[in-house]
Specification:
11 strands; 33% helix; single chain; 2 domains; binds the ligand N[C@@H](CCOP(=O)(O)O)C(=O)O; transferase; Ribosomal Protein S5, domain 2; seven-stranded mixed sheet; alpha+beta; 360 residues; four-stranded antiparallel sheet; binds adenosine-5'-diphosphate; Alpha-Beta Plaits
């Protein structure tokens, strides 16, 4: 006899141009975990989870449950609730459609899957806001994880915490997700830091359902960490006063409502998806980025609404109501001139994560 449940987490596209670390969109590519928990495992010895995996990232993902991001996050949640280890003889099969390191939120999805895995295994029934606290201890920008958890077009901020809570929320990642010893047993030493309550806050914006997302996905990986390193450590006073921050704030304010309007207005949206905070710096890592975003416009490509870098890249996100193939194939030509090959997909904006218990 066993208990079986499925966890399904969508891909996400963060930023949507001007909303750096603020907005995210959940998209119809999924990370799916099928979890089997034996109800009466052999009593003799403890057996750690057995992981199997198919799909995107299969050639690089660790199958050791103490090294794999999803299971390490699940163990973090369990240990914060005084549960020292996974149930014995657990089997977790992952089927993944979200490519790694492309700016489509694969790590955010893996973190949310881990939080939901811990929550469901231990039947903790934590509310969404508390699940988000745990996710934010690992992935410290809220845009991807919030959209992956709650779904749709979402804006989020991190609350200003008091000194004690700020310290608790800023512990090094190594303490949240420690390197577990290779001979991992039952005793992990002291418990990891429990997240303060109410770190992340969010709101779901409206979304006009005729708008689809064309993901133009270069065939190379760019880690989010590397794409954050190229951003300036300090923005100049000139940047903050006008050129950068006001430019982005003006556009973001318009964008959050413009994408809910029917029919969507391409002139308004194309301009509102421009950015000066992160894309100009990331172009050094993504050959062809400015050429694609400047040359594919609503005037040249009817149906296009706006175009930007997806998350930290290298994927380009084009929002459009039609003309998908022309948009993607013209982007392909521009990328090819830079020596970059791409794949593309038309994606829907979807709901958030789901956990489905199978009847046993
Ligand atoms: N399903 C998964 N299971 C385990 N680890 C994952 C999974 N998806 C992503 N990761 C980890 O996250 C990394 C990619 O994260 P990141 O650089 O933030 O890119 P992005 O989130 O844009 O895809 C992968 O190299 C891998 O280490
Ligand atoms: N706001 C973050 C988003 C990273 O998204 P990912 O999908 O590339 O992980 C950033 O721009 O760095």
């Amino acid at each position: 006899m066993s208990r079986q449940f499925t966890i399904r987490v969508p891909a996400t596209s963060a930023n949507i141009g001007p909303g750096f670390d603020v907005v995210g969109l959940s998209l119809s590519l999924y990370l799916t975990l099928t979890v089997t928990v034996p109800l009466s495992p052999p009593p003799s010895t403890y057996q750690p989870p057995r992981l199997t995996y198919t799909g995107e990232g299969a050639d690089e993902v660790p199958l050791d449950p103490y090294k794999n991001l999803t299971t390490r996050v699940a163990l973090y949640l369990l240990r914060c609730h005084d549960i020292p280890s996974f149930p014995s003889h657990l089997h977790i099969h992952t089927a993944n459609e979200i490519p790694f390191g492309r700016g489509l939120g694969s790590s955010g999805a893996a973190v949310i899957a881990g939080v939901l895995l811990g929550n469901t295994l231990a039947r903790l029934n934590l509310p969404t806001e508390r699940l988000l606290d745990f996710a934010l201890m690992v992935e410290r920008h809220p845009d991807n994880v919030t959209a992956a958890l709650v779904g749709g077009f979402v804006g989020s901020y991190l609350k200003e915490l008091d000194d004690e809570a700020t310290q608790a929320a800023s512990v090094p990642l190594a303490e949240v997700l420690p390197e577990y010893p290779p001979d991992a047993g039952e005793d992990w030493g002291r418990n990891p830091p429990v997240p303060p309550r109410g770190i992340g806050h969010f709101v779901r914006f409206g979304w006009e359902e005729s708008i689809k997302a064309v993901a133009i996905i270069p065939r190379f990986e760019l880690s989010t960490a590397k794409a954050r390193e190229v951003l300036p450590e300090v923005y100049s006073r000139k940047d903050l006063a006008s050129a950068t921050s006001v430019f982005n704030l003006q556009r973001l304010a318009v964008l959050t409502t413009a994408l809910a309007r029917s029919p969507p207005d391409p002139d308004l949206i194309y301009e509102a998806m421009k950015d000066r905070v992160h894309q100009p710096y990331r172009k050094t890592l993504i050959p062809g980025l400015p050429e694609v975003t400047n040359n594919i416009t609503p005037a040249t490509h009817p149906g296009l609404l706006g175009i930007c870098l997806s998350g930290a890249g290298p994927t380009i996100l084009a929002l459009a109501t039609g003309g998908f193939e022309a948009i993607a194939e013209d982007a392909r030509k521009i990328f090819r001139e830079k020596g970059v090959e791409i794949d593309w997909k038309v994606l829907e904006v979807v709901g958030g994560s789901a956990v489905i218990e199978q009847a046993s």
